[in-house]
Design goal:
The chain is mainly beta. The protein contains two helices and nine strands, in the order E-E-H-E-E-E-E-E-E-E-H. It has helices at about 55-60, 175-190; strands spanning about 5-15, 40-50, 75-80, 90-95, 100-110, 115-125, 130, 140-150, 155-165. Strands 1, 2, 3, 4, 5, 6, 7, 8 and 9 form a nine-stranded antiparallel beta sheet that branches. The longest helix is centred in the C-terminal third of the chain and has 15 residues, at about 175-190.
Length: about 200
C-alpha cells in the first residue's frame, strides 16, 4: 500500500531573528538564520513527504546529482565527477514567470547503510544575482538540503529544506515548497515498489 502526503511551508522574513551583525553570511554551512546580501530578504521553505517504498529505492531515484529527470530539471551541462562534492550542474528552471538558467554546486552527499541519504547543494555564487524577468527583483542565492530517512521497511520520509536570499517578490507565485512538492509526487509514482 502506498501512502503519499506532502506538507509544504514557506517562511519569509527580513532576518529579524537576531541582530544582523551577529549572523553569519548565508552559505551551505552557515546554518539558519543567516545574513543575506545587503538589500535582500531571507526566506525558508520546507517540504515533507512519506513515500511507501524502501529507502534504498527512493534513494536510487532521487540522490543522483546529474540525473534529475524526476525533479523536472534535466541538466544541459555538468562538470566534475557525478555525486562528488564540488561538481556542478546547469539546468533550466521553469517558473510561472519564465525560464531561468541556473547552476548548482554539490556540497555534500552521504549515503547510509539503511538506504537513507543526505545531499546538500547551492546556487553557484559566480552566477549570482539572477534577475527576474518581471524586473522587480532577483535571486541572491539559495541553499538546499534534500534527505531521505528509512522509517520502516517500506516507508521512507523525505525532507527538502531550502533557505534563500532574494529581492523583490520571488517569481510571482513560485515558491520552493511548490517547486519540490510536484517532483516528490512524481517520485512517489516512479519508485520501484516491487522490492
Amino acid at each position: 500500500m502506498q501512502l503519499f502526503v506532502v506538507i509544504s511551508t514557506l517562511f519569509l522574513a527580513s532576518a529579524t531573528f537576531a541582530s544582523p551583525a551577529s549572523l553569519p553570511a548565508c552559505s551551505t554551512d552557515s546554518g539558519t538564520p543567516c545574513k543575506c546580501p545587503a538589500g535582500s530578504e531571507y526566506a525558508e521553505s520546507v517540504t515533507f513527504t512519506t513515500i511507501g517504498a524502501a529507502a534504498k529505492d527512493v534513494t536510487a531515484l532521487t540522490s543522483d546529482f546529474f540525473f534529475t529527470d524526476w525533479l523536472g530539471l534535466v541538466p544541459y551541462a555538468h562538470s566534475g565527477p557525478n555525486n562528488k562534492p564540488g561538481s556542478t550542474r546547469s539546468s533550466t528552471l521553469q517558473t510561472t514567470e519564465g525560464s531561468y538558467n541556473i547552476t548548482e554546486r554539490l556540497t555534500k552527499l552521504n549515503k547510509y547503510p539503511d538506504g537513507s541519504f543526505i545531499q546538500r547543494f547551492e546556487q553557484l555564487s559566480s552566477t549570482l544575482p539572477v534577475e527576474y524577468y518581471s524586473k522587480n527583483g532577483s535571486f541572491q542565492g539559495y541553499w538546499i538540503t534534500f534527505q531521505t530517512e528509512r522509517v520502516f521497511q517500506y516507508e521512507t520520509a523525505v525532507v527538502s529544506s531550502v533557505y534563500s536570499c532574494a529581492t523583490g517578490h520571488p517569481l510571482g507565485t513560485f515558491t520552493f515548497s511548490h517547486h519540490h512538492a510536484q517532483p516528490l509526487q512524481y517520485a512517489n509514482k516512479s519508485v520501484d515498489y516491487s522490492t
